[in-house]
Amino acid sequence: MALAKALHQCSGESSRVFKDFCYSTLQTWRWQRRVIGKAEYLEKGENPRFIVTSFNKYQYEAQDLYEKMYCVRGDMENRIKEQQLMLFAARTSTSKMRSNQIRLYFSSIDYTVLQAFRRLCLAETEMTRAQCDTIRLKMLKIGTRIRITVRKVWIMQATGYPYKDLWGQILARLACLPLRV
User: Fold this and answer.
1) Is residue 84 helix, strand or coil?
2) Of the candidates 34, 31, 141, the residue with the CA atom closest to the CA atom of residue 86
3) What is the C-alpha separation between 68 and 30, in angstroms, rounded?
4) pTM here?
5) N or C: which end of the chain has fewer CB within 10 A?
6) Whole-angstrom Cα distance, residue 116 to residue 107?
7) What's the pLDDT at 181?
């Protein structure tokens, strides 16, 4: 942690130092295990993290194991939580299994559609990393008047809608997507 703090003081940027070592508890572990330590120093101060792993140092270096396996796993758990809480996948409140299962199917389809929408339409915008709930509330759950004529479909949004320009970009991207049958 002292090295991370010194690097932070020299550069003014957040700094990370990784170290792996073997550790064993006095009573509960039968053998030593590999521990990855991350000493991170931010503007707010120290941010240490430790993970215990069964991967040896020949399989993964300490930094690669932490950033490419551990952090990615945490991000996957965030996506699961996002689906459960924001798209109501955990809402299985009926007494019949079939109705709870269909709710879970709908939630899974919703999540898949929102992920595709984020990847295809919101890339390189202010909503690139937005959570499903934010996309749903700010981009989809809006009041819009749709008028269909013989030659055109008119989409009219309120003049005060703050994401009107972003919707223009989204519609332009949607028009460029190839149709698959």
Assistant:
1) helix
2) 141
3) 28
4) 0.57
5) C
6) 14
7) 58
